[in-house]
């Protein structure tokens, strides 16, 4: 009806054409001008009628908009009561089920590969093998059935975003139990390790950055836009209060009933895990100026240590037993840290999806990326071994910190290939290296005049892995794709390199 009313009232009236040289008569009146042709046919001036018609159309449109606005208000009011749109609840339930199924498949795949490699006595990292398999399947599907590759990516995207959202948590356990890990290390050796970590980070940053610049000048490849990467959602107030409730209830329950879940590690697991998560949520919400100094992962580790200290004081057991319950390294009696570190294999598997997402970028800038990563990784491993020997660091400790620039998940797999290493020290050194990079990478890159986003991204990820990547990409999104690629490739190439017996023997020879 509105459409009919808003149609111009006189648009369908035919106007007779006038022959040439036919006299016209005009008369003026208060209603406007009228004209007559020689046949006496009156021609109306429709301008005023059209103005009235436009006003009528606007009035009708305003009425339609008001009715639409009222309908929107009623729908929103029904949604707010929870009874107006039941499909919202079903979508939320489906999203949760989608996340659980996709994440469950990744975790189950990691567990299966670990058991298979352990049964076959294969020392190669099982998660790395799985990552190659997933990436190969995606590439094959993309070549022959692109729709299948896209469907797989969409199916596993919730799991990938979940891992990306909570990624720093998986690094925390090694920092939490650091007091137990370094207790037997002499103070002089600790100073040497700090020197190697800080100086090694700067050296690796320079090598990777300047190598990328040199190769880029040779190949002269133009920059292209990277594939957009989905970002995980921020933490909500509901999550904060939910984890706070879990912490207080489980903390009091563990004090009143110390063995309610069978063992002390299981009894302490809920409040230690919730305190770790709470620290990360709070740390992530801090202002950027504070996070430069007080990184969320430090807040996360500090929160867990304070919770352990409070429980040790209240129960009279002391700090050390509670930290021992945090990371037991016993599959039959896991602690909160064991649960978190159990996702490290899934983190490696998820690299396949990020690599596939940026496959075009990898292909276009393959020369800069692969050359820089290979040179930087080789330099990092052998320079650490050499400097450790020069400063007189114990061989077992030197070997433990060899993969200092490689992400925790793969660094632990690398040191497992050697004998007599301290895996807790390895994880702690890797995290500290990342924290140094996260706090100082932008300033140092500016001082070194490395302004190319490719060089900045590769240098950051090759020297400070995930934590440095997160810090740089937050302010320089154009460097994120190169950070992500170098982050994964550095760990992959380092693992492949150390899985060769001849390379391991050469590293041990340098260490002495």
Percent helix range: over 70%
Query: Spans of 5+ residues with little confidence (pLDDT < 50)?
Result: 1-84
Question: Strand fraction band?
Answer: under 5%
The total domain count is: 3
What multimeric state do the chains show? single chain
Question: Average pLDDT value?
Answer: 80
Number of helices: 23
Looking at the structure, what is the overall shape? globular
Write a structural description:
- Keywords: Membrane, Transmembrane, Transmembrane helix.
- It is a multi-pass membrane protein.
- It is found in: Membrane.
- It comes from Arabis alpina.
- One of its GO terms (cellular component) is chloroplast inner membrane.
- By secondary structure, this protein is an all-alpha fold.
- It folds into 3 domains: 91-165 and 341-356, no CATH class; 183-221 and 365-512, no CATH class; 237-326, no CATH class.
- Helices cover 72% and strands 3% of the residues.
- The chain has 23 helices and 3 strands.
- Strands 1-2-3 form a 3-stranded antiparallel β-sheet, with no helix packed on it.
- Strand 2 (32-36) and strand 3 (42-44) form a beta hairpin.
- Helix 3 (86-119) packs across helix 15 (344-357), helix 8 packs across helix 21 and helix 12 crosses helix 13 (319-326).
- The chain is globular and about 70 Å long.
- The N and C termini lie far apart (92 Å).
